[in-house]
Amino acid sequence: MSEEITAPESETQLAESAMADLAKVREEVAKVVFGQDRTIELTLCAILAGGHALLIGAPGLAKTRLVDSLGHVLGLQSGRVQFTPDLMPSDILGSEVLEQDDEGRRSFRFLPGPVFTSLLLADEINRASPRTQSALLQAMAEHHVTIAGHRHDLPAPFHVLATQNPIEQQGTYPLPEAQLDRFLLQIQVDYPDADTERRILVETTSGKDTQLETVLTPERLIAIQKLIRDLPVGTQVVERILNLIRNARPEQSADETVRKQVKWGPSPRAGQALMLACRARALLRGRLAPSVEDLEALAEPALGHRMAMRFDPSGKTPSLPELIQTLAAKAA
């Protein structure tokens, strides 16, 4: 039985106010993104935890629509970069240009790129070359970029929500491991069920224009992010996260399948991501502390892109998502 954790009264009041705001955020986004409750929740978990999210799915599954609506509802300045094979790093970060004034004096002026926004949509990120993909690396990790030796800070908050088409599709490039590790969660966007798709067919092809309400401000979002980091986490949940992370590494695992079939396991950063995401999901679901259920729900989105399986010609090895769920259930 999980231990009871009592938060201070002031923190409880702040959390209850945040819960009401976040419930309104989810309600607004659901007006235009149908049948994707899990995707909405996981994306919000990544943002509330202060991280970035990678949404993977076939074209036409409302990934871009989700990001656009989140920017509006959260009150964030948003920008978009359409990744293409000829995209250059300067097209994302910006560049310095040489200017001459009326008196003939020359100087360099920095022209910021689209990365200088609070919510950046990196659309179809795996259609660009690895060099261009990695241009986001410093921005995602350090929230600033360096151009011609000069540091330029990004707005606060700053989040990247990237979309990715399946690797099997023509004209796509796998993301480097270092780039993948910068995403707090990797979210699989699936096809809708029949009822949801029927609703999509009817409502999105009519003349109806749904207006979304702006619920938060950047300052309010930062305050909620700070609150989430202050939420207490029970010893049981901490120990299960620790055991899961260590048991997923072939060098430390007691699981025979992991030792034989996992090429590399999650780093400590994966545990940090899972801990923060569990706190965020707890608040989204009206709780003041994360539970084991949060861990099991978030294990695959937090670890799936931070691990790799060896090729098994026999076909008997479980898939990586199945293995992670098994390890999460066994963590004790």
Your description of this structure?
The chain is an alpha/beta fold. It has two domains: 205 residues, 3-Layer(aba) Sandwich (Rossmann fold), CATH 3.40.50; 102 residues, Orthogonal Bundle (Helicase, Ruva Protein, domain 3). Helix content is 44%, strand content 15%. The chain contains 14 helices and eleven strands. The strands form four sheets. Strands 2-5-8-1-9 form a five-stranded parallel β-sheet. A two-stranded antiparallel ribbon has the order 3-4. Strands 6-7 form a two-stranded antiparallel ribbon. α2 packs across α12, α12 packs across α13 and α13 packs antiparallel against α14. The longest helix is centred in the first third of the chain and has 21 residues. It is globular, with a radius of gyration of 21 Å. The two termini are 12 Å apart. The model has no long low-confidence stretch (mean pLDDT 87). Pfam families: AAA_3 (PF07726), AAA_lid_2 (PF17863). InterPro entries: ATPase_AAA-3 (IPR011703), CbbQ/NirQ/NorQ/GpvN (IPR050764), ChlI/MoxR_AAA_lid (IPR041628), P-loop_NTPase (IPR027417). This is AAA family ATPase. It comes from Ponticaulis profundi.
